[in-house]
Amino acid sequence: MPASPIHTTDLQDEQLRELRARRLIAQALVPDRALADGQAVAQHMLAVQGQLYNSGLQALACRSLSSQAETEELVRAGQIVRTWSQRGTHHFLAAEDARWMMQLCSPRIEAAAAKRRPGLGLTEQMFDAARSALFEALREGPVARTEAYALFDAAGVDPTQQRGPHILRSLGSLGDIVQGPRRGSEDVFMLTENLPVVARELAGEEALAELGTRYFHSHGPATVKDLAWWSGLTIRDAKTVAKLARNTVAVELAGVEYRMGEWQLSVEWEALEAALALRLELPAFDEYLLGYGDRSAVCPADLVPIVGPTKNGMCRPFVVEQGVVVGAYG
Questions:
Q1: What value does the mean pLDDT take over residues 99-110?
Q2: What is the pLDDT of residue 3?
Q3: Does 50 map to a domain?
Q4: Is 243 left (phi over 0), alpha (psi -120 to 50) or beta?
Q5: InterPro entries of this UniProt entry (predicted)?
């Protein structure tokens, strides 16, 4: 029989167990939900935390039937990209989703960044000069980070004292550039318009609906506040996203509304128990932990300083048992 959705009449411990199990299943972390490859995972998850390049690749691979090396080949092929799509933070996305996601989720971040430029000694004329120099080079092919800084310097813009990183991050937030495969340990940039895919053109309510649909289907059960934190949108916009999300249902836990994909209504109790029986070793910054604003359901407070995110924003790889973070590893 399908498992009933979460209700406030259930015992709290059982509610939490069900919440964790459903998230494990939604995030394709159980074997029978694994997707074909990293591109399919990126399309399902919409965006996967990628602060650490290799950890992001591992997060994609562990949800698929492919290896980390095979996942990186999809980055080399331009099917998956890395960029600052949300909250000014690196994520891996399917290439066709990069531009509309950056344009939807990054305006507030970019507006704040623009206000910081005078403090960095950057005028708008200097920013435009750096952008023009970089774009001219990118039209010929990918450019590594150190090469970008040299281009800025040649254009009369000193890239030191955080000016170079600021310019690259802003151009990423605007949707103009993305990162491809690394050269050694160095980030490499390319023009979004040069990606070998047809970019999805989504804006307004259509973009909000797509965001909500894919977030709640891949991360649910999750709250509006979780969505707002993950996307970087305001609570007001996140509420609109929840209303527009397709094929989702609302459930309650301790009086709080969560949303998840309708498909979860057909999940069997046996599948929930099987999900909780798994022991998982997940990479630093994994979506199972970082995909939500409120992580208390899956990570005990005393482990936060160990697995993160810490006060300085760092995370460590972590172990999950019964859907709960039990410690760090590696």
A1: 94
A2: 57
A3: no
A4: alpha
A5: AlkZ-like
Residues spanned by the domain of 124: 111-174
25 pLDDT higher than 90 = yes
Q: How does the average pLDDT of the chain come out, rounded?
A: 95
Q: What is the residue whose two structure tokens read 């980055």?
A: 75
Q: What is the pLDDT of residue 4?
A: 53
Number of domains in the chain: 1
DSSP H helices, 9-52, are: 12-26, 38-45
Residue 147 lies in a domain: yes
How far is it, in rounded angstroms, from Cα 12 to Cα 256? 13
Q: How far apart are CA 78 and CA 278, in angstroms?
A: 33
- Which amino acid is present at 180? G
pTM over 0.85: yes
CB 100 within 8 A of CB 90: no
Q: Look up residue 42 and give its two tokens.
A: 């990126």
Residue 170 within any structural domain of the chain: yes
Cα separation, 181 vs 53, in Å, equals 9
